[in-house]
């Protein structure tokens, strides 16, 4: 093989490698923008449904697309295209209205036009109490973040969606609220960890439909103790095997 042939082969090999890398990055960008995006759970506001250290996929097409569907949220257009309405009870990732650079994850409890209020720890929708049943206690700090047993309730929304909530205190600041009337084009979000959640009762406020990023679908990885998934040496003792590849209720 001549020097020129070797040079062309070397150049072609490098070019092919760069091309493959660029194509892979473009494919990953398309998948992340239009189909699935991974998220990690940074706080305990959705316990016991979601725990810190859970990693999940969010379905991007579930509610259509807005500027916040794209990396860096470029102001390409306003509102949503191919919009779909969240169902009551969906667990949703959205941009924090006061600061859209932050991602939040909560459960949709109020749709446009709904009247939402908490009375003595019971969620009321349009004046009617949501069915709430005490199902027991959890005495696992990894789930509750508490050093004592915590009451667990099963809440069932009017459309039949059912999930568990934690009750850390019988008289917390969020147990009794004013009545909120959800504006058109907005949603009311609450965390399942009702006494330890910054949500629409507080600084989050009503969430515009434009701020919706996607619906949480499946937990694909989970590790306890505040460890990173890259700390493979921690897997034997800290990985939560029972949560891997489980659907988000």
Question: Could you walk me through the main structural features you see in this protein, from its secondary elements to its overall organization?
Answer:
The protein is an alpha+beta fold. The chain has two domains: 1-34; 35-247, Umud Fragment, subunit A (Ribbon). It has three helices and 15 strands. It has helices at 3-34, 141-144, 235-238, and strands spanning 36-40, 54-59, 91-95, 103-110, 115-119, 122-125, 128-129, 131-138, 150-156, 162-167, 180-181, 186-190, 207-208, 212-222, 246-247. Strands 1, 2, 3, 4, 12, 13, 14 and 15 form an eight-stranded antiparallel β-sheet that branches. The protein has a four-stranded antiparallel β-sheet with strand order 7-6-5-11, with no helix packed on it. Strands 8-9-10 form a three-stranded antiparallel β-sheet. A hairpin with a 2-residue loop joins strand 6 and strand 7 (128-129). The longest helix has 32 residues, at 3-34. The radius of gyration is 22 Å and the shape is globular. The termini are far apart. The mean pLDDT is 90.
């Amino acid at each position: 093989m001549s020097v020129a042939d070797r040079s062309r082969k070397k150049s072609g090999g490098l070019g092919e490698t760069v091309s493959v890398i660029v194509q892979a990055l473009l494919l990953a960008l398309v998948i992340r923008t239009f189909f699935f995006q991974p998220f990690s759970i940074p706080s305990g506001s959705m316990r016991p449904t979601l725990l810190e250290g859970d990693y999940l996929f969010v379905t991007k097409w579930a509610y259509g697309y807005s500027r916040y569907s794209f990396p860096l949220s470029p102001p390409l257009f306003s509102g949503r295209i191919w919009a779909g309405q969240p169902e009551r009870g969906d667990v949703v990732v959205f941009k924090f209205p006061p600061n859209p650079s932050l991602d939040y994850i909560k459960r949709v409890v109020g749709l446009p036009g709904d009247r939402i209020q908490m009375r003595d720890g019971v969620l009321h929708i349009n004046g009617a109490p949501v069915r709430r049943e005490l199902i027991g206690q959890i005495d696992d700090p990894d789930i509750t973040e508490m050093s004592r047993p915590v009451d667990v309730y099963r809440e069932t929304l009017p459309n039949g969606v059912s999930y568990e909530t934690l009750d850390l205190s019988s008289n917390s600041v969020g147990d009794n609220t004013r009545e909120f009337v959800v504006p058109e084009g907005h949603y009311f979000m609450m965390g399942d960890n009702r006494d330890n959640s910054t949500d629409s009762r507080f600084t989050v406020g009503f969430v515009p439909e434009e701020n919706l990023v996607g619906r949480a679908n499946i937990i694909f990885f989970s590790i306890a103790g505040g460890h990173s998934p890259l700390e493979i040496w921690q897997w034997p003792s800290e990985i939560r095997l029972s949560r891997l590849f489980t659907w988000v209720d």
